[in-house]
Structure formats: structure tokens, C-alpha cells
Design a protein that fits this description.
It comes from Thiopseudomonas alkaliphila. InterPro entries: DUF3108. Keywords: Signal. The chain contains 1 helix and 15 strands, in the order E-E-E-E-E-E-E-E-H-E-E-E-E-E-E-E. With 237 residues, it is mainly beta. It has one domain. The chain has a 15-stranded antiparallel sheet that branches. Strand 6 and strand 7 form a beta hairpin.
Length: 237
């Protein structure tokens, strides 16, 4: 099982500036591995904590695997500022654990991955592998067509690029939902992976579906089952 994957013009880096305030949400999904004869479940949520702090969680589980991902972040001058990140995966291959702490006063990201200590320079706009997904959601809501994020990925800092493909109607258990389709931009000569995401137009651009194809051809997809945005149940047509 892989992490879910999730601006300005491609010549610039997104600073994750929000066009509107964050809204809490909770969504459940069906999770499907195309190579396996059974499905699983997934949940994604954003909840308000004390002050300007928020908690972003994702977890998925099925018979042979489980994944948990969590970010603590804050809003500062309408920008997403990560504070901590944790990730754990069990099953479907080797187990994996990641911990990251963002010390903005010391301008350093410290933590560990697979037992190996990491320490990286922390600069404005840097995001973790969960918070960038929230930044992507907010940038799509703001009407941006191409986005780029600097993300802490293992013991390095990578640039993730996305582009809006267009509008599509997605069939879910909550009804048919009008969505914006976004895809990860990769160099095909460097990576065979594919990532596509759909965000609900009428529901604060909540993630409706995500499809991931790995370089070995294995495919994973989640599709919305039910959700609430700011306490209001999501309903399609």
C-alpha cells in the first residue's frame, strides 16, 4: 500500500497560501487493489485543534495491510505551516515508519525514516507528504491550473508538480459528484508511476477519489463512500 499521494506557474514554487479558511471534514472511502480479490477501507479527516493548529489524518486498512499518516499544522498569515508528520505502514512488503519534526525557530527538519536519522534545512513553503495534499486541495479550490510544491521526501527535499486535467463526474456511494481531475506531472523517462486525483466542486473540493499506478503496474484506488464537510453531509445527485 502506498501513501496517498496528492500553485503558481511551473516557473514558481507554491507558498501554500490559502484563498479561504480551512474547513473541517471527515471522509470514508472504499479502497481497492486491482490485483487482489478483496477491498478495504480508508478514512481522511481534518480537525481543528487549539489556537490555529489543525490535525490532518489518513488511514487505510484491508485484510493484509494497514497504513496510517498524520500531520499537525498551523495557519500563519494564511499559509499552511507543518509542525510534525508521522507515517507507518505494515503488510504488502516491508514495514515502514517515518517521523518528522519541523522546528521553524531553528529552521531545521529532524526525524527518522527506517531507523535512519534525518536533518534538513527548513525554508518557507516547505511541506510534508500529507500537508501538501491539503495545499493541493486548496489551490484547486482557488482555480489554479498548475501547482508545484517543495516536499520533505525521505532524507531529501523533492518538488512535486500537478496540473488540472478538467472536469469529470465521479460515481460514488454518496451519489454522482462533479469533480475537478488533477494529475501528478512526472517525466515518463524517469518514472512510470501515475497519480490521479478528483476533488468535489460543490463540497469545498474534498478528495473524492484517488488512483495510483505503480511502476510495476500494480494499481490502487480509493472512492468516496460518505463524508461531512463543516458538519454537513456530502450528497451527490
Amino acid at each position: 500500500m502506498r501513501r496517498l499521494l496528492i500553485g503558481l506557474a511551473f516557473s514558481l514554487l507554491s507558498s501554500a497560501t490559502l484563498a479561504a479558511e480551512l474547513k473541517p471534514f471527515h471522509a470514508s472511502y472504499t479502497a481497492d487493489f486491482k490485483q487482489l480479490p478483496f477491498s478495504g477501507t480508508a478514512e481522511r479527516s481534518l480537525s481543528k485543534q487549539a489556537g490555529d493548529t489543525w490535525q490532518l489524518n489518513f488511514q487505510a486498512a484491508m485484510m493484509v495491510a494497514s497504513l496510517k499518516e498524520s500531520s499537525t499544522l498551523k495557519l500563519e498569515k494564511n499559509q499552511l505551516v507543518p509542525l510534525s508528520y508521522q507515517y507507518s505502514r505494515n503488510g504488502l512488503g516491508k514495514s515502514k515508519k517515518i517521523k518528522q519534526s519541523f522546528d521553524w525557530s531553528a529552521k531545521t527538519v529532524t526525524g527518522s525514516e527506517k531507523g535512519k536519522a534525518i536533518s534538513l534545512p527548513l525554508t518557507p513553503g516547505l511541506l510534508d507528504k500529507s500537508t501538501y495534499q491539503l495545499a493541493l486541495q486548496e489551490d484547486v479550490a482557488a482555480g489554479k491550473k498548475s501547482m508545484r510544491y517543495r516536499v520533505v521526501d525521505g532524507d531529501d527535499i523533492d518538488t512535486y508538480e500537478f496540473r488540472v486535467v478538467g472536469s469529470e463526474s465521479v460515481k460514488t456511494k454518496a451519489g454522482r459528484i462533479e469533480a475537478i481531475k488533477v494529475e501528478r506531472v512526472r517525466d515518463p523517462s524517469q518514472s512510470k508511476r501515475e497519480t490521479q486525483l478528483w476533488f468535489a466542486k460543490d463540497w469545498d473540493y474534498l478528495l473524492v477519489s484517488l488512483r495510483q499506478v505503480e511502476k510495476d503496474g500494480k494499481e490502487y484506488q480509493i472512492v468516496l463512500e460518505q463524508a461531512e464537510v463543516a458538519g454537513k453531509p456530502v450528497k451527490g445527485r
